[in-house]
Amino acid sequence: KAAKDGGWVMLQNVHLMQAWLKSLETALEFIEEFAVPEFRCFLTSEPPSALQGPLWPLLPEALLQRCVKIADEAPTDLKSCLRRAYAKFSQNTIDQCQKPREFKATLFALCFFHALILGRAKFGPQGWSKKYPFNDGDLTICGQVLCNYLNSAEKLGTEVPWPDLRYIFGEIMYGGHITDFWDRRVCNTYLHNLITVELLNNLTLAPPAFKSPDASKMDYVHYQKFVEERFPPEQPQLFGLHPNAEVGFLTSQGISIFKTVQGVSGSDASAGVCDLAASQPLITKYMEDLPADLDMLEFRSKVKEEDYTPYIITSFQESDRLNLLLQEIRNSMTELELGISGQLNVTEGMESLSESLQLNRVNEAWQKLAYPSLKPLSAWFADLIARYEQLTQWAGGRELLMSIWISGLFNPMAFLTAVMQVTARHETLPLDYMTNRTRFLNTRDPLDITSLPQHGVHIHGFFMEGASWEDGKGDDEGYIADSRMKELYPVMPVANVFSVQVEHMDWSHMYHCPVFMTSQRGGTYVVQVNARMDPDDNDEGHWVLAGAALLMSDD
Known about the structure:
The protein is of the alpha/beta class. 43% of the residues lie in helices and 11% in strands. The chain has helices at 2-5, 21-31, 61-66, 78-86, 91-95, 100-119, 136-156, 162-173, 181-194, 220-230, 244-264, 280-289, 296-301, 310-341, 348-358, 364-369, 377-397, 412-427, 541-545; strands at residues 8-11, 40-43, 204-206, 210-211, 404-405, 434-440, 457-460, 463-465, 468-470, 479-481, 495-501, 510-516, 525-532, 549-551. Strand 1, helix 2 (21-31) and strand 2 (40-43) form a beta-alpha-beta unit.
């Protein structure tokens, strides 16, 4: 009817009806034959990149090609985010609060917080380990909650409940989106720094000198003018991050652009890499370098039943998993060789492996049996050989190595648990009462370690992201320090890990540092370790906002 009469039709949230979109596509093709020029059909969709990925896999390609596309998304620069956030309110909003001075100052800080958590996403996993759908509704509801709490405090004659406001904003409203513990810690640290009584005393909202204005002299229009004229230039320090974070952001942005171009260029662009014969030289090379399976029967035959310690059990578990991976690699490349020679029918798996070899990517079938890694195939294969050599010395020698390459384990947490088990058995204490303490030495070369530690084990293979490490003097332990320019993943010293009772663990002047297997963070989380801070540094919030974490791979 609208097509005949020249009406306008709007269909909202079409991304929720993907199964029906094919019917819509057919209907549009049908009415196109008799629709008058004045007819318009509008489709709206939520920007899918936060959760689902690119737009084109969600909507039919023919439908997208027929449309004129207009995007309305939050800006990425901090100043525009703050301007947009503050525009959600008005002078009328301020007039509704009975504590205008506190409300104006806190509302502006809340808008700045909203801009920070939106803008932080561009720094990738160092900003947020996952992508969260923070939206304008979170901000406006928090503004209303703030007004209600301040009005209630005015009626009751009580002080502003700052802790309550921080809890509601950080744990319920914005925190309701956050599923990762370490991301929640970042969110709460921002709120701890911003939503405080010091807002009324010219609080520094962001370094180096962006301060909260005097709310008693400001109204809505003045705050808008303050944003336009006094907001500092965009830089990672405004988010609490080091300038190195921008290097990672620009690199990721470039990679994302190339992947997008490759993804939308069509299937013809990758037709050349399906030549199976072209992968034969690579198969020959990798098969020559691939070691034989570890002889687990021989390893186990040399160990008496009473000699099975948690360390030996862990080494055997790691060896079994490595053998499974080696067998999969060997079998899949052998099948591909047979397929190339015509002795076997070519399968989809063979084509996938051939493509992975030629593009220097780790095959998906190998990834399922392997460990988290972002390395290209050549570096990944060299890493695999290094893991094999360590297990040959460890499991075959039946003795703990002077220093364990912790990054070379499939399940590093199992080894760290073994450290606690050994101590718990020696002290006849329940395992639940034990925790690991980490002390970083002043040497980075594991070959300098010539003896086992008196307590615990030596481990190496950590990299620091978001910070650096300052070595101590003499036998004094070093401490976490600000990053050095263009040094993205500094190598950490060898560490002595030993177990203590939970009640004896001292966290004073310590940073609760998460450890991840790769820079993707998120699901690759392994364990929390203690990283010593400078004796004059009592606030770990600086390192939380900097995204400081230990990685087991420099990618």
